[in-house]
Amino acid sequence: MSELLPVDRERAALVGRVFDPDGDGPCVVAVRNGTVVDLTPVEPTMSGLLEREDLLDIVRNAGGREWPLAGLELLAPCDLQVIKACGVTFVRSMIERVIEERAQGDPALAADIRRRIEGVLGGMIGGLRPGSPEAARVKDLLVAEGLWSQYLEVGIGPDAEVFTKAPVLSAVGSGAEIGVPAYSRWNNPEPELVLAVGSDGRPVGATLGNDVNLRDVEGRSALLLSKAKDNNASCAIGPFIRLFDDSFGLEDVRGLDIELTVTGTGGFVLEGKSSLSEISRDVLDLVGQTIGPRHQYPDGFVLFTGTLFAPVQDRDAPGEGFTHKLGDEVRISSPLLGTLTNVVTHAEKAPPWTFGIRALMANLASRGLL
């Protein structure tokens, strides 16, 4: 279980959610030296805890029931927060979105389209600052070449793509199954940094996420984004939120490498990496485009910040690239954030999501916590 935790776990301020081993319901917890401490009597929701001015003092010093980490059912470390996501924040993934669009969801067409687009674009896009005059000139060139795309618009234009990834409380935690609909034949994991942001727009911590994506669906039309992104068990977050303090801050986030390993049957292994140092828009810019005078989140939000990873390794037929198979183990890790591990199943067969906001409020009330 030690791989769940950061390499410098002794000094990391970690919070999360677990299901009470006694069967009472979800608990907000801190992790101290491999022991989980129940903070639910202090703050019954993660949303409330992250709003506290004395947050770090509570996490480091508050008493409560204690459990060994091994064997606990980990829940996603967010509850009442809205689950938001930004897309097309890296150049490489932006090009893959253009390929999906041109292929109209057909993986067999992807390889030829990739070669053509990369041949035309060359090194023109790398290093561009979105919304800059240089980006506008590249846009004019691509329009003239007949290669302009809505994905390039959000990739190098002034406005980031920000969408709602999943309903409140629907995300799964580390160790749970993740869902891909049975009809999808071209899909992939998306390893991402996830920021925990308070109602005032201030990031208070970071964790890992898997923004599971259906390339065949979004490739047919960007208007199908919610169908491609929001399915049963299609959002995984965890294992824990690492709070910002003297040992970990935004500068550490900006330099993170997020590793991905997919291990399938028959010895198949896919590896990849997403380096935050290559992101096109700073993470604070993404936060600022999500919350502000035009849009508020009184319970806070968690924000997927996009991925550099775009799988092109063939798994089956040549030229068709990667797609998930049942039983794939997906491991997303970073030394300062730990490891998020999930196993792929069909969304139709994953445990149905039944514990929503009403159920959480009723459960907390029955336990005398509200």
Can you describe this structure?
Strand 1 (14-19) and strand 2 (26-32) form a beta hairpin. This protein starts with 13 loop residues before the first strand and ends with a helix. The strands form three sheets. Strands 1, 2, 3, 4, 5, 6, 7, 10, 11, 13 and 16 form an eleven-stranded mixed β-sheet that branches. Strands 8-18-17-14-15 form a five-stranded mixed β-sheet, with no helix packed on it. A two-stranded antiparallel ribbon has the order 9-12. Helix 3 crosses helix 4. It has helices at residues 46-51, 55-61, 91-103, 110-121, 133-144, 150-156, 215-220, 225-229, 250-254, 283-290, 357-366; strands spanning 14-19, 26-32, 35-38, 66-68, 74-75, 82-87, 161-166, 177-180, 187-188, 191-197, 203-211, 213-214, 235-243, 257-263, 269-275, 301-304, 329-334, 338-346. The chain is an alpha+beta fold and 370 residues long.
How is the secondary structure organized here?
Elements (H helix, E strand, L loop, with lengths): L13 E6 L6 E7 L2 E4 L7 H6 L3 H7 L4 E3 L5 E2 L6 E6 L3 H13 L6 H12 L11 H12 L5 H7 L4 E6 L10 E4 L6 E2 L2 E7 L5 E9 L1 E2 H6 L4 H5 L5 E9 L6 H5 L2 E7 L5 E7 L7 H8 L10 E4 L24 E6 L3 E9 L10 H10 L4
Parallel strand pairs: 6-16, 8-18
Antiparallel strand pairs: 1-2, 1-5, 1-13, 2-3, 3-4, 6-7, 9-12, 10-11, 10-16, 11-13, 14-15, 14-17, 17-18
- Please state the CA-atom Rg, rounded to the nearest Å: 20 Å
The SSE string, one letter per element, is EEEHHEEEHHHHEEEEEEHHEHEEHEEEH
Number of strands: 18
Low-confidence stretches: none
Q: Could you report the average pLDDT, rounded to the nearest whole number?
A: 91
Distance between the termini: 32 Å
Helix content: 10-25%
